[in-house]
Specification:
With 203 residues, the chain is mostly helical. The chain folds into two domains: 1-96, no CATH class; 108-203, no CATH class. The chain has helices at 2-6, 14-23, 65-75, 81-91, 100-107, 112-121, 131-142, 144-162, 173-189, and strands spanning 34-39, 42-47.
């Protein structure tokens, strides 16, 4: 399991990952299959779900800031949606490239409160030229297939779970979030980014 979790981060963070794993309780189950994404300088393989209980109180005192972000990344993949959201809310403060795929992956999942948390936690995503917009735009540009799959998942979850409440996809919070991500990618590449969701109501 150690190798599986270490593979979710760039090799240069190997020591930090080991420090994080040392404070994590053993898992009741093995991590669920990983998904691969590209980062500048290589690729990482992130587990879809982990089953470790959260560390005991006080772990923040023994981990560096970088190690804390590693821990938040890992627990954003937890099987419990409330745990995922709790660590996501800490994770979005980071501007490290390797944290971005953990956030984007959550945008394509089914918990509406998490989608809302991402929209609220990344206010600069809507600001042209911001560091946040460039960070997410670069990641999407580097991983077009991954982002296209994320868009399709957003549409699927809306259709299955939320269509009764948001009769038009354009009124669903996930629609606005995908628009913001596409705008970031468009700005980064200097061209309109392809769409894999229904258009917003205004179009």
């Amino acid at each position: 399991m150690t190798c599986i979790l270490a593979a979710a981060f760039p090799a240069r963070l190997a020591g930090d990952v080991q420090s994080v794993l040392a404070v994590m309780p053993d898992a009741s189950l093995q991590p669920v299959r990983s998904f691969e994404v590209g980062l500048q300088g290589g690729s990482i393989a992130i587990p879809s779900r982990i089953y470790n209980e959260e560390p005991d109180v006080g772990w923040e005192r023994v981990l560096t800031e970088t190690q804390q972000m590693v821990l938040h990344c890992l627990y954003s993949r937890h099987s419990d949606g409330r745990v995922r959201q709790r660590h996501l809310e800490q994770l979005m403060a980071s501007r490290e490239q390797w944290t971005v795929p953990f956030v984007v992956q959550l945008a394509g999942e089914y918990v509406l409160e998490i989608i809302d948390a991402i929209s609220q936690g990344l206010p600069d995503l809507a600001v042209p030229g911001s560091a946040c917009r460039r960070l997410y735009g670069e990641f999407i540009a580097r991983n077009p297939a991954f982002f296209a799959r994320t868009e399709r998942r957003v549409v699927s979850y809306w259709s299955v779970y939320y269509r009764w409440k948001y009769t038009e996809f354009g009124t669903y919070p996930g629609s606005a979030l995908m628009e913001a991500f596409r705008a970031a990618a468009s700005e980064y590449v200097g061209a309109r980014w392809p769409r894999n969701t229904p258009p917003p109501l205004a179009e």
